[in-house]
Specification:
Blueprint lengths: L1 H36 L5 H8 L3 H6 L1 H13 L5 H46 L23
């Protein structure tokens, strides 16, 4: 019985070693590919490409060091490009705000026109009432108003 347990435990350990080697090969392949293509060099992209976790990459000193070294080779984006992108986004947002304000004005005008039309319709067509019914806001016959 103990020999079976030891054999199973040995198989599990061997499978874990094999899985660790496969993950290591995947990370190596992902890093070579990222280097060849010029990026992306962030932990998440490498983890996705290597089918492993970000925590694995950060905890593995060799891989974390290589990724950080690759990140250091990427020049930062120039400020003028960022500013231009922000100005473009701002111009689009302002244009959309103007268009939405015009639409709100049109809808408010239409709403007022429809409310007026509804009020005219209500005044023009009296509501037929049955025997003993009264209109809202009117007192029952013989009732006195209370202060």
């Amino acid at each position: 019985m103990q020999s079976d347990e030891w054999a199973q435990q040995g198989d599990v350990i061997e499978q874990a070693r094999h899985r660790a080697e496969v993950v290591r090969q995947n990370v190596e392949r992902a890093l070579r590919l990222a280097e060849a293509e010029g990026g992306p060099f962030d932990f998440l992209s490498v983890a996705i490409a290597a089918h492993c976790s970000v925590a694995y990459l950060r905890q593995h000193r060799e891989f974390a060091g290589r990724i950080r070294a690759l990140q250091a080779t990427v020049p930062p984006e120039p400020d003028d490009r960022r500013d231009a992108a922000l100005r473009t986004r701002l111009a689009r947002a302002e244009h959309r705000a103007v268009a939405l304000a015009a639409r709100v004005e049109r809808l408010e005008a239409e709403n007022a026109r429809l409310r007026d039309r509804l009020a005219l319709t209500r005044r023009a067509a009296p509501v037929p009432l049955g025997a003993g019914a009264r209109r809202p806001g009117t007192a029952a016959p013989g009732a006195t108003k209370r202060p």
